[in-house]
Amino acid sequence: MTNPKPTWRFVLPLVFQTALILSIPAQAVYTHLSGQTVVLQTVPVDPYDLLRGYSQTLRYDISSAETLKLLPGWETVLTKQDNGEKALIDGTQLYVILQEPVSADNVSPPQAWIPIDISRDRPAELPDDRVALEGTAKNGQIQYGLETYYMPEDQRLSINQYIEETLVEAGGERPFVVEVKVDREGNSAAGSLWVGDREFRF
Amino acid sequence: MVSEKFRHQLRQEVEQWQTEGLIDSLLYDRLAQRYQFNTLESAARNHFILILLGLGSILLGLAVITFVAANWQIWTKEVKVVLLLSLFMGINAAGFYLWRRPTERWQSRAGQSLLLLGSLVLGANLALMSQLFHLSGPAYELYLVWGIGVLAMAYSLRLTLLAVLAVILVALGYCSGFPNLYYSVDLSQLQPLLHHMPLFASIAFIPLAYWCRSRWLFGMSAILVVASLEANLLFVTFSLFDLSSGMAEIVAALSCTLPPALLWAYRDSIWERSPEATPRFDPIAKGIALTFLCLLFYILSFEWLWRNLPSPGFGEIPAEALPILLDALILGGFALYSWWKLGYQRSSIWRIDLMTTVVGAMILIAGSVVWLHWRIEPLGAIAIFVFNALLFLLEVGLIREALGTAKRGGFWLGVLLMVLHLMSRMLEYDTGLLFKAIVLFFCGVCVIAAGLWFERYVRVLART
C-alpha cells in the first residue's frame, strides 16, 4: 500500500504551519529590535503580590483609568453613549504618551517614565524623550499586552522570597518596575523585571 | 466493500456449512478468497496496533507539551526557538516519509501517528512562542490558530485523523471564545471567526468529511455547525431582547427551527456528481436533527421556562449581531433550497414523504409558537401544552419508526425519552408521593415489558 502524494502536498501546509508559529513572536521581535526602552511603574494586583504558578500578572499605574483621568487628553478617548453621558467603552484604542524622567541616565534601578498625555490618535511627531504606548480599554482597565510575565518554575521560590524582603525594606514604596520596548507604532514588548536594584530577565 | 463484522459472521457460518457438509471445500475456498478470510485476523491486529499507536502519540504529545511548559531554562531564546522548530519539522517530516512510502503496513500507521504527534507539537510550539515573548492573549486564539494549521495539513494529505483533531480544536476554540461574544468587546483579529463559525465550519469541514469519506468527521462537523449556529442565534436573541422588538422574536423562532430544518433536509445528493462514489451521510444528519428536536421540545416543555422568559424591548439591532444574522441568512437559504430539492427527489411535482411532513410540521409549529408568544401575547399554558404534545408525538414517532425498521437504537431512545418526559412532568408539578410511586411503578413495568416485547417479536420478525 502506497500513498503516492507528491512532496509539495506535505511541504506547503508545513510551511504554512511554520509561518503561523513564527508570526506569533514576529511583532515582539520587531519591537525589541527597533523599539525604545521605556520603564513602567507597576502596582499591586493582589494583597500578597507574589508569583503564582510560573507567571506573574502585572498591573501598571497606567493600567487604571483613575490615573489616566488626570491627563489632559482624557476627554478625547471617551465615547458618547445612548443616555448622553460620556464613558470609556470597552475596545477603545488609545495612546498614552510617556516622558523620560530627568536625570534617568544609568540609574539603578531605572526610574519609571511619567504619563503626561493621552489621546485616541497616535501622535505624528514626538521628541526623543517621549513615546506613545498603544493600549486597549477592557473592563474599565487599559491593557497593553504586557500583563503577563513568565518565569522559570525552579526560581520561583527564591524570587518570591526576594520580593518579600524588598517590599519590607522599601516600606511604603513599591520598588517594582518593568523595562519594556516601544516601537514607532506604539506596540510594546516586555523586557526585564526590576525588583529593588536587581534585574530579572527571562 | 462489505463490513468486517459481516465477514467475521460469514466465516463462522461458512465454516459451519462446511462441517455440516452443505458446501464442499472448493466452494469454501472460493468464498474464503472472495471475502478474504485470511486477512481478518491481521485486520483486527492492525486496528489494535492503530489504537495503541494513536494513544502512544497522544501521550508523547502531552509529554512534549508538559516538558515545554515545565520551563526549561538552560538555553537562550534563540536556541529554544530553533530547537522547538526543528523538533516540530523533524517529527512531521519523519511521519510523512514513513506514511508515504511504507514498505510494511506498520510503517504507514507509525507515519500517521507521527503526523498526529507533529500536529500536537504545533500547538505546543504556538503556546511556547507566546510564552517565550511574554505575550498575553485569549486562549481561544491559540485553539483557533492551531486548529486552522492542522486543518491545512489534513486537507493537503487527506488524513481523517488530523481532520478530526482540527474539528476538536476549532470546537474548543469556539467554546472557550464564546464568552467573548457576551461580555466585552474583544479586539482580537480572530473574533469574526467566532461570529461566522457556522459558515466557517460548513465550508471547512463538511467537504473534508466527504473527501476523507469519514462518518465520524461528518457527524462532528455537523454538530459543530449546528451547535455554533444555535449558540450564536441565542446570543443574538438575548442581546436583542433588550433592544429591538421587531427582530427578537423572529431570531428566537429561527433558533428553534433553522438547525433541525437544515439537518433534516440535508442530502448528499445536493453535492453528488456520481452517486456510487459519494459516501452516504444523510442518516447522520437526520439523527442529529431528531436529537436536536428531542432536546428542544424537552427543554421547552418546562413550565418555569415560560414563566421566566424575558420580554422584548425596543431599539436597534446591535452591530455585532449583523455578521451572525448573515450566517443564519445564508444557511437559511441553503435549508430552503434543500427542502425544495427534497420535494423533487422522487417525482416531478413537489412531494415529501409522511415522516418528512411530520418533522417539517413539528419544526413549523415550534417556530410559530415561539414567535407568537412574543409577537402577539404570552401563551403560557398553551405553549407548554404544545411542546409537551410535540415531545410526546416525537417519542411515539421514534418508537413507531424503530418498530418498522427493527432498529434497537431508535426504539430505546423513544422509550427512555418518554420515561424522562413523564418523570420530569411528575416532579415538576406538585403531586402526592403515592401518585409518584404509582407512576414510577408503571414506568418501570412498561419499560421492561416494551423491551422484552421488542426483543422477542420485532427482532425475530425482522430476521425472518
From TrEMBL, chain A:
This protein's source sits in the domain of life called Bacteria
Q: What is this protein's record name?
A: GDYXXLXY domain-containing protein
Q: Which organism is it from?
A: Lusitaniella coriacea LEGE 07157
The beginning of the lineage is:
Bacteria, Bacillati, Cyanobacteriota, Cyanophyceae, Spirulinales
TrEMBL record, chain B:
Q: Which residues form the signal peptide?
A: none
Recorded superkingdom? Bacteria
**Protein name (record):** DUF2157 domain-containing protein
Alphabetical keyword list: Membrane, Transmembrane, Transmembrane helix
**Xref: InterPro entries:** DUF2157 (IPR018677)
**Which residue ranges run through the membrane?**
48-75, 81-99, 111-133, 139-155, 162-181, 193-211, 218-241, 247-266, 287-306, 321-340, 352-374, 380-398, 410-427, 433-454
**Is Ribosomal protein set as a keyword in this record?**
no
- Indicate whether Transmembrane appears among the record's keywords: yes
Question: Which organism's genome codes for this protein?
Answer: Lusitaniella coriacea LEGE 07157
The record places domain DUF2157 at 15-162
